Amino acid sequence: MDAHYALGSPSKENVIAPRLFISSAALVRLAAYVRLQPTTEVCGYGFVSSWNGDFYVANPDDFFITEQVVTSSSAKDAGAGLGPAYAQAVVEGRDSQLRLQWHSHPGDAYFSSTDMRNVKEFGNTFDYLISVVTNRWGNIQARFDTFQPWRFGAEMEVFCYDDIDEETRRLVSAELRRKVTVVPTKKNLTQWRPA
Fold first, then answer.
1. What is the value of pTM for the model shown?
2. What is d(CA 158, CA 102) in angstroms, rounded to the nearest whole number?
3. pLDDT tens, 122-167?
4. End-to-end distance of the chain based on CA atoms, in angstroms?
5. What does the alpha-carbon distance between residue 86 and residue 100 come to, in Å, rounded to a whole number?
6. Exposed, middle or buried, 118 (CB in 10 Å: 0-12/13-18/19+)?
7. What's the CA gap between 77 and 102, in Å, rounded?
8. What domains lie within the chain, and their CATH numbers?
9. Distance between CA atoms of 20 and 111, rounded to whole angstroms?
10. What does the angle CA 37 – CA 39 – CA 45 come to, to the nearest 5 degrees?
């Protein structure tokens, strides 16, 4: 992971919280869910892996949805709520990685008082949870909350990382150097210097 860029803001609580890294391929999946449902909310879950104190969503299918009922201001799992997501996680052998819940807002991406109540309710099921709010413009806010053995919560920094494997990077970089000529325009004149 040698290239990444920030999506979310640093913690306003002035505490150190884990960071959330989302691969570019997984981010495309999340964005598709949200952009194809632009006037209402939509909600789902995610599988995360942890490494060195941070969390990662690596694969597109790490973000998923279950059946739900939505409006312009709410998204609720149909029926048993978290049950279908947990059942899927067990079938895939990933129940320990089901620690992310996400939903979209048709407007701004922020944690409303309803969202914060929902985060608290997840404490009945999980020892920790990552919550993500996003919108159709790609704004993302994330929180990390622990519930056991103590209660703690803070905003997370969110990063997208480049998940191109090294062999593909090497081959494509070589091909780009051979086949692409950059012609200066007004937009990139600051980078171009006459010979």
1. 0.78
2. 13
3. 888 899 999 999 999 999 999 999 998 889 999 999 999 887 777 8
4. 35
5. 11
6. middle
7. 12
8. 4-164 (3.40.140.10)
9. 16
10. 45
Pairing mode of beta strands 54-57, 43-47 = unpaired
pLDDT, tens digit, 9 for 90 and up, residues 45-79:
999 999 999 999 999 999 999 988 888 888 887 65
pLDDT digits (tens, 9 = 90+) for 93-122: 999 999 999 999 999 999 999 999 999 998
Taking only Cα atoms into account, the Rg of the chain, rounded to an integer number of angstroms, comes to 19
Q: How far apart are CA 95 and CA 32, in angstroms?
A: 24
| DSSP collapsed to 3 states, 78-93 | CCCCHHHHHHHHHHCC
Give the C-alpha separation, 15 to 155, whole Å: 9
Q: Which amino acid is at 120?
A: K
Contact 130, 19 (CB under 8 A): no
Confidence of residue 195 (pLDDT cuts 50, 70, 90): very low
Q: Write down how long the chain is.
A: 195
